[in-house]
Amino acid sequence: MADRIYFLVGADSPVLEVIDAALALDRVYQKAVWAFAREFGCEKIYVTQQWQVRLLGLAFEGDIPPGWRLNARKGYSTPDSRTKEGKEIGVRMKALPHGVSAQRFSSMLDEKIGQPKKSYTHWEDGVSWTVFEKHGSQYVLSVPAASKVSPPGCRELKMSEYWKIREAAEGKIPTRGDSRAARGERKA
Question: Where are the domains of the chain?
Answer without folding.
Answer: 21-99
